[in-house]
Amino acid sequence: MTFSKYDLLKLENQICFPLYACSREIIKRYKPFLDEIDLTYTQYIVMMVLWERRTVNVKELGEYLYLDSGTLTPLLKKMESKDLLTRTRSAVDERNLIIEITEQGEKLKEQAINVPMQMAQCSALEPGEAAELYRILYKMLGRSEG
Amino acid sequence: MTFSKYDLLKLENQICFPLYACSREIIKRYKPFLDEIDLTYTQYIVMMVLWERRTVNVKELGEYLYLDSGTLTPLLKKMESKDLLTRTRSAVDERNLIIEITEQGEKLKEQAINVPMQMAQCSALEPGEAAELYRILYKMLGRSEG
DNA sequence: TATAATTAAATTGTGCTCAATTTAATTATA
DNA sequence: TATAATTAAATTGAGCACAATTTAATTATA
Fold this sequence. Notes:
The structure is a homodimer.
Chain A lengths: L15 H21 L4 H13 L1 E3 H8 L3 H13 L3 E5 L7 E5 L1 H10 L1 H9 L4 H15 L5
Antiparallel strand pairs in A: 1-3, 2-3
Helix pairs in contact in A: 1-6
Chain A binds a DNA duplex through helix 1 and helix 4.
């Protein structure tokens, strides 16, 4: 077996590529389940934050989800028009936009409960592997946990 | 500690979310290095295939990269206009579009060689962790290797 | 061998994603 | 307290990503 400096440029030697491919493949697997509750994947993770916290501002939301206002602003406007959340300027500091879940948004949680269960069926990983994957990914993200 | 059926809906209990976030964060880290050789990340992985194989058709390329013609067609047209590759219908079967690397494209490999080296500096993972991550991701993708 | 079925790209339309810039509000400083 | 610096969202523009449909070529079948 001989090695070349070009080996580093082979697709099979990249760590980012399977990460990128895997992320998109799994999001595709979510699609049929998310279609049933009329959410895109990005809308779904926004709802996850709101189901836990009820209220959050755009900056915090962006930090949680690693998304910026260029992505979030139009997304949140669309979700507001779907009556999943409200957008209100903070009275204390008008630079901040406060996102709050609506009753409709809360209700959706009951239907969404089936999504992670259905997705779990799709995974080919052993529980230990999933845990290890989880740990490594959060290490890469530079957080100790979620 | 009490558990609820809603725990499954918490962002911190998802495996897809850190995958999705991590993928985008790493691609962002590539950007300054890829800017130097005037490639986007998607163009970079197309070039990786061409640096290894010189020639490939769109269907095969899509299988390697998990991308469809809706993504690849405009991408490849742009790369053709940058003189990185040529697009030619197969004489044997005109449904197939043959992508071939140009001399320019070959030359770019010399500059690109620095990209994986520079990226390696950015990684916070131990070699063993990177290997394990790699193994698990390809298992999820349903391939034995890259 | 006409017709039907299949296949490979291209096209269309929707929805992110992000860098860079702008706008408006707040805070720090001369 | 005016002015400068900082901050949070919004805006703009470029580039994917993908589902669904269309077009054109090839293969299978009646």
